[in-house]
Amino acid sequence: PQKKPLVVVTRKLPDAIETRMMELFETRLNLDDRQMTKAELIEAVKVADILVPTITDRIDAAVLSQAGTNLKLIANFGTGVDHIDLATARQRSITVTNTPGVLTEDTADMTMALILSVPRRLAEGERLMRSGDWHGWSPTFMLGHRIWGKRLGIIGMGRIGQAVARRAKAFGMSIHYHNRKRVHPDIEHELEATYWESLDQMLARMDVMTVHCPHTPATFHLLSARRLKLMQPHSYLINTSRGEIVDENALTRMLQRKEIAGAGLDVFEHEPAVNPKLLEMDNVVLLPHLGSATLEGRVDMGEKVIVNIKTFADGHNPPDRVLASML
Ligand code: 8YV
């Protein structure tokens, strides 16, 4: 029988996934789940036939230049592949796959949770309860803002953007979006969505903005200081995609000056670091990159990784190949 490929997994995955991987492949696990150092990553790409990294592994040109000729597949555990140098991978004929689709609904749920939490002051209210400082109800106590009837602007109308739109529509928001291209007319019709060719114009007109595009060289600081300034003072910004898409320092300054009303952030420019000023603000809800963090989702992601590896090892094109168009 054919020799099983050596699969090196960089982080602890759900038990069921690790067990299945051990059955199918020669698998090297990371049992203590410590983030690999650069030296360990280089060691991994030197020996692996297949690498299974996550967002916390920076697979840059320096790492890839040390890869052995046997490294043929990077089967990423996650959808975003911005931590992998795709151009270098392609030069070295290394296939890259990801796990799209299975975390769409979970990420959209978390986005909706933030869209509700920030204007309705959910986290602030919870902190108040725990502090023991609640002295009773009054008609003007801790008023937030309703989302019903408000305009939601979605940047990036892919799977997750559309799943957010469906939820927000059910909450009575009107759906607006900016995307590289218009989505199919049937989808626009279903969501009653308005397409904005100009991101700048959309930013100036929305009540809530939410980001759902991938982080690529083209979207780095897409929400720059200049663009953030186009937002209205009563508006909110939600980000569950990648921190790098928003200029975090510019956003922080705007929040300090009350140039926008609040933000809900699940992702940050320099994770796990967060601009400390954000921690002081009541109108900001912060989450530690929990968008897709459900047990079910992680198992689904693991299963996708396994299918990609198995298909590739059997000599076929894996289903979730990351396209060169992502570059
Ligand atoms: C994960 C994600 O937390 O898939 C993504 O792009 O951001 C999250 O689902 C992480 O990427 C896993 O590697």
Automatic annotation (TrEMBL):
The keyword NAD applies. InterPro entries: D-isomer_2-hydroxyacid_DH, D-isomer_2_OHA_DH_cat_dom, D-isomer_DH_CS1, D-isomer_DH_NAD-bd, NAD(P)-bd_dom_sf. CDD domains: GDH. Keywords: NAD, Oxidoreductase. The keyword Oxidoreductase applies. Residues 112-291 form the D-isomer specific 2-hydroxyacid dehydrogenase NAD-binding domain. Residues 16-322 form the D-isomer specific 2-hydroxyacid dehydrogenase catalytic domain. One of its GO terms (cellular component) is cytosol. GO terms for molecular function: glyoxylate reductase (NADPH) activity; hydroxypyruvate reductase [NAD(P)H] activity; NAD binding. Pfam families: 2-Hacid_dh (PF00389), 2-Hacid_dh_C (PF02826). Belongs to the D-isomer specific 2-hydroxyacid dehydrogenase family. This is D-glycerate dehydrogenase. It comes from Magnetospirillum aberrantis SpK. The lineage of its organism: Bacteria, Pseudomonadati, Pseudomonadota, Alphaproteobacteria, Rhodospirillales.
